[in-house]
Amino acid sequence: MRFHPLEKLINLQDSYTRNFKIDNLHLLLLQRDGVLYLIEGRCPHRGHPLDAATLDNGVIQCALHHYRFAIADGRLLQATEERCRGLRVFELVYEGNEVGVMLES
Ligand code: FES
């Protein structure tokens, strides 16, 4: 496992949204209501970018087909077509003045 720094803490604020790509992994770092989240950047349904998703009351809703996922654990809450797997949610790691993620690569 290796630490991948993503952002300096000083740059974080509510409404912060930023995409990252580490090898083939798309990640989305976002802060809402003082809480920072790191999730996969593409919807598990058909891969639509999630930076256009809405996030309300702990529920993230993809802009394309409106599938809804719990942002805390990624579970699928509502599907309008076939079901799909849950959303990958990553644990944030704080090191010094940065936040990042531990990944295999
Ligand atoms: S691609 Fe996100 S709901 Fe279909």
Describe this structure in words.
The structure is a single chain. The protein is an all-beta fold and 105 residues long. The chain contains no helices and ten strands. It has strands at 2-8, 17-22, 25-32, 35-40, 54-56, 59-61, 68-70, 76-78, 93-95, 98-103. The strands form three sheets. A four-stranded antiparallel sheet has the order 5-6-7-8, with no helix packed on it. The chain has a three-stranded antiparallel sheet with strand order 1-10-9, with no helix packed on it. Strand 6 and strand 7 form a beta hairpin. Bound molecules: FE2/S2 (inorganic) cluster (FES). FE2/S2 (inorganic) cluster binds at residues 43, 45-46, 48, 62, 64-65, 67.
**Strands of the largest sheet, in order across it?**
5-6-7-8
- CA distance, first residue to last residue: 6 Å
Q: How many strands appear in the DSSP assignment? A: 10
Mean pLDDT: 96
Which topology does CATH recognise? Rieske Iron-sulfur Protein
CATH homologous superfamily caption: Rieske [2Fe-2S] iron-sulphur domain
CATH architecture: 3-layer Sandwich
Range of strand content: over 45%
CATH top level label: Mainly Beta
Please give the share of residues in helix: under 10%
Oligomer: single chain
Segments where pLDDT lies below 50 for 5+ residues?
A: none
Integer-rounded radius of gyration? 14 Å
Number of alpha- plus pi-helical segments: 0
Strand-and-helix sequence, N→C? EEEEEEEEEE
Shape from CA axes? globular
- Describe the biggest sheet? 4 strands, antiparallel
Bound molecules: FE2/S2 (inorganic) cluster
Number of domains: 1
Structural class: mainly beta
